[in-house]
Amino acid sequence: MIRFSLVLGMCFLYILEAFVPNMYISFIFNVAAAAVFFTMVPLLDRKGRIFTLGLFTAGIFIHYAVGDRGMQLIEGITQNMALLAILILAPLLSIPLRREGIIDTVITYLNELKNSPSHTFYGISSFMLTLAPILNMGALRIVHGFVENIRIPSKLLSRSYYVGFTPAVIWSPFFASVGIVLFYLEITYLSYVAFGVVFAILQMAAGMILFRPAGAVETAAALEEETGNAAADKGRKKDLYTLAGFVLGLVLLLIVMEQVSHKSMLLLVSMV
């Protein structure tokens, strides 16, 4: 519980410092980041601790070798805080989806398709394609946590994950890859999103062609028919629309926040 509180406190201080620059807030933030680092080290296995502490020690030598001094050493720990905040906070967006039973609805539907490799491939890919843009790496943990008990072949599962997950890396503002591009090129997400979506569609299409199971073309029509029948269930249809609207709403919210605040997309994603 202490570690969890430290991590959330560190993320809060990161956001607060971005909007209220202050020497004291910055100092507390740096101390909190250092505390999180050292309290997490004991949780690593032996090799992980050796590797992490080895890199940390090397960083100390390099820090003083180039002439830096004092608290700047601790500030080095926070240099990648924007990326860390996204990885920590983005998966929390799954909480309202779980509470409303939306994710359970989709998993139930996937369970009904498990006897058809083609249907399973398209179903999991579509589900991942919807969740990945907002949950980041958390989408993999969430989806796999549900489908691992359905006994889907690992090869089919990995291909479905790839097709559904990788397009989000190109266009979603919830991914550090997109945030870094926006940060270093000093452009807004609104000016980038069209290019990102186009390349994401191309990658998704290539993945569908290369990794679809044998016989997927013949069963595509049957999949559409089953999907249409399932959509007749008002409860399931409502949940699917809610999930799609949730994703679209968050992306639109980020675009508006970026235009109003003129802050980094990495920071805005952490806030959302």
From TrEMBL:
The chain crosses the membrane at residues 50-67, 79-99, 119-140, 161-183, 189-211, 240-257. Keywords: Membrane, Transmembrane, Transmembrane helix. The keyword Membrane applies. The keyword Transmembrane applies. This is Uncharacterized protein.
